[in-house]
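One example copied in:
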Amino acid sequence: EGSGAGQLYVAPETARLLQHWRHHDFSGQRPFFCQVEAAETAIWLTEVAANSQAGKGILEHLKNANNEANPDLLRLALKLATGAGKTTVMAMLIAFVAVMALAKIIVPKNT
């Protein structure tokens, strides 16, 4: 959800996940900034990009680059440094997809 100029709007379920990852009082290690940023990037590509002209251009560029490399399988990759917590990011993305599927907002095409 957005609240002002320059805000990009996401589903309420996504907004709650993002709020949780950024502000929850975790009993253990809270997600690193780079982990939240990586998850936000994937969420932006999934949920927000198609709603803006610039986002559509980025998605088209990614689609074309993917078609050149592997035309039968659309893939995106996020690069994180060694020790940045890629497993945590994967868990965050799994949570995002699960919440969206349960809310029937998006249904994964391939699981």
Observations:
- Confidence is low (pLDDT under 50) at residues 1-6.
- The longest helix spans residues 53-69.
